[in-house]
Amino acid sequence: MDIKDINREYIDLVMMNQEKYHDDYKLTVEKVKNSSAQYKGKPVPFLYHPFFVNERIVRDFTKISETMASIGNKVTNEYIANKDFRKKFGFPKLIEELIEIDNGYDVNIPIGRYDVFYESYDNFKFCELNTDGSSAMNEDNTIGKILLETKGLKDFSNHHSLDYFELIDSWVDESIKLYNKYDSTNQSPNVAIIDFIESGTSAEFEVFKNAYKSKGYNCIIADPRELKYRDGKLYFEDYRIDLVYRRIVTFELIDKADEIPEFIEAYRNRGFCCIGSIKSQVIHNKIFFKILHDEDTLALLSEEERDFVKAHIPHTGIFGGDQDVFNKVLNNKNKYIMKPMDLNASQGVYVGKDLSQEEWEARLKKDFNKEYLYQEFVENFSREYLVFEDGEFKVEEFNSVIGLFVYDEKFAGIYTRIGQKNIISGVTDYYAAPSIMVD
Predict the structure, then answer these.
(1) Quick one: which H or E segment has residue 214?
(2) What are the tens digits of pLDDT across the range 175-193?
(3) What is the pLDDT of residues 244-263, one digit of tens each?
């Protein structure tokens, strides 16, 4: 069956038996409210309707993930080997130095979430790549498991086999495998999940911490400002840290570098195994999309990979320098979306279509020559979802951003956000739509 037919079948099931599912929806809301699916202290918004995928879609996502991992490796290796190529990125000296340090486990991008606008393999575009600080595994898994217990999906499972993509224990296993490449002699590494306390996703960190502990590993959550470097090792008080699961995003590491000198010194001297390492910043920074279209970058890739870039990476440019660049963007408002080079959670992002010409011009004047990128605006793809409003279910169209989790360069699962605006993120109106595999 086509995925649209499967999705419509679920809608029809609920719509034809509305009253049967009303109380169950309200019960589901309470379950999520009392779960670990929390973002900035509030329950993650969701619908009584998952993002269904089938085997064909999973094959597409696997191919997309593996191709981008291969491209990312080639560009990262060129960055490290070629000082002239490195200049394209314009990274601060500190980050350049940290990228060059061997991480000890031979994988440039151990974890990532590659966000795409997707309809089919022939018709998709990348939105952005998240490596350092990749998040929302717990949102997807927690709400997904709750939805699988609803009457709606239980009734649906009478005709279909349903499952979710487990993202917590599988990451623990992958991170330990990577650590074993770093140090095969230590079978019980002490783990630390590291982020600045004001930025971290504490509920998700606790879930990962418990997963490490359930598999027999010591694990703590710590702020990098609390860590000390002594005797060649990194410590939190008397707790020696062997493996750092890094959730610090690199732009914040740069901004607060003077607050964490001992963490940085330990990293320089390989006093711990860092997963992921700072190498992943090469593809995380949004300038990566601009650089992918450069002729010398395309020359590094296979013919298939070059075609992949040209078809699926939105054209991107640096919003600075020549006044002609400013005028081109100014006079083609509906063609572009503006993005800071290295912020997360859609901070500073705005879309020409959402603004008047006067508003657009004012924003552009403020951001010209300020580390901004202009990028081809991509029309999103929509799907129908059930929404519960005014005591009844209704059917509405939503756009989606589909995050492909990639663990150790392999497709691992999905995190999908849906919304009715051009920007879909935690700072706008959105719903999490857990991914459910339909066989």
Answers:
(1) helix 202-214
(2) 999 999 999 999 999 999 9
(3) 999 999 989 999 999 999 99
Separation between Cα atoms, residue 385 and residue 396, nearest integer Å = 6
**Distance from chain centroid for Cα 223:** 21
Q: Contact, 191 vs 219, CB < 8 A?
A: yes
Tokens of 310: 């040209």
* Lookup: tokens for 396: 């509405």
Report the alpha-carbon distance of residue 51 to residue 117 in Å, rounded.
14
Q: CA-CA distance, 362 to 355, in Å (whole number)?
A: 10
Q: How far apart are CA 280 and CA 72, in angstroms?
A: 9
Residues whose CB falls within 8 Å of the CB of residue 430, separated by 6 or more in sequence, listed in order = 45, 417, 418, 419, 424
Please tell me the total number of residues recorded for the chain in this structure.
439
How far is Cα of residue 307 from the mean position of the Cα atoms in its chain?
24
Per-residue confidence band for 372, with pLDDT thresholds at 50, 70 and 90: very high
Specify the pTM: 0.94
Domains of the chain, CATH where assigned: 169-280 (3.40.50.1760)
